[in-house]
Design a protein that fits this description.
The protein is of the alpha+beta class and 171 residues long. The chain contains five helices and five strands.
Length: 171
C-alpha cells in the first residue's frame, strides 16, 4: 500500500511541475484545480501504467485497452459542444476553447474548464492557436472534482428516474 501511495504522490508531483513550467504558477493543494489534478493522476496510473503482468489496471478490469490519448493537465484544447440542431444558432461553431482537467471514469468523457464552468465532452483536440494554459481558467474553477463528478452522476441518475416514472404513466 505504501508503494502505491508513493507512486501516486510522484505522479502528482510530475503533473504539478508540468503545470508550473507551462503557466509559471503553482496550483495550491487546497484549490479546486488541485482536486482535478489528483483525479487525473489516478486516471493516468490506472489507464496507462503497466503492471508486472504487462497490462494496465484498466485493461484487467474492463478486458480492453484504453484508447483515449493522453493530454497534459491544463493543456489548452478545443472541445466540441454537443448541441442539438434546434439549439444551435446559424453560423455558430461546434467548437469552443477550454483547458483539459481529466477524464470521467465511467464514460471516458473529457473534463474541460471553460469560462462558463467545468464541462464534459466526448471530442477534444489540442488548440493549435493557443499553446499556453490560461491561468485564469486554471485558478478560476468554482467546483471541486468530487462535487463535479458526484453532482453530474446524481443528475444523470435523477434523469433516469424521471424517465422511468414517465414510462409508468403510459401503462
Amino acid at each position: 500500500m505504501e508503494r502505491a501511495i508513493q507512486t501516486l504522490e510522484g505522479q502528482i508531483r510530475t503533473l504539478m511541475m508540468d503545470v508550473q513550467l507551462d503557466t509559471g504558477s503553482m496550483i495550491h493543494p487546497r484549490s479546486n484545480a488541485y482536486s482535478f489534478l489528483v483525479n487525473w493522476a489516478c486516471t493516468i496510473l490506472n489507464r496507462y501504467r503497466l503492471t508486472s503482468i504487462g497490462k494496465t489496471p484498466f485493461h484487467i478490469l474492463t478486458g480492453r485497452q484504453c484508447t483515449r490519448p493522453i493530454v497534459g493537465f491544463g493543456t489548452p484544447v478545443l472541445w466540441k459542444k454537443s448541441l442539438k440542431s434546434h439549439e444551435k444558432k446559424k453560423g455558430e461553431t461546434d467548437w469552443s476553447t477550454g483547458i483539459f482537467l481529466g477524464v470521467k471514469w465511467r464514460t471516458s468523457e473529457a473534463v474541460i474548464s471553460t469560462p462558463d464552468g467545468v464541462k464534459l465532452c466526448r471530442t477534444i483536440q489540442c488548440d493549435p492557436d493557443n499553446r499556453e494554459p490560461t491561468e485564469e481558467l486554471l485558478h478560476g474553477i468554482q467546483t471541486s472534482a468530487i462535487q463535479f463528478f458526484y453532482s453530474t452522476e446524481d443528475k444523470n441518475d435523477d434523469d433516469d428516474a424521471e424517465d422511468d416514472d414517465d414510462d409508468d404513466d403510459d401503462d
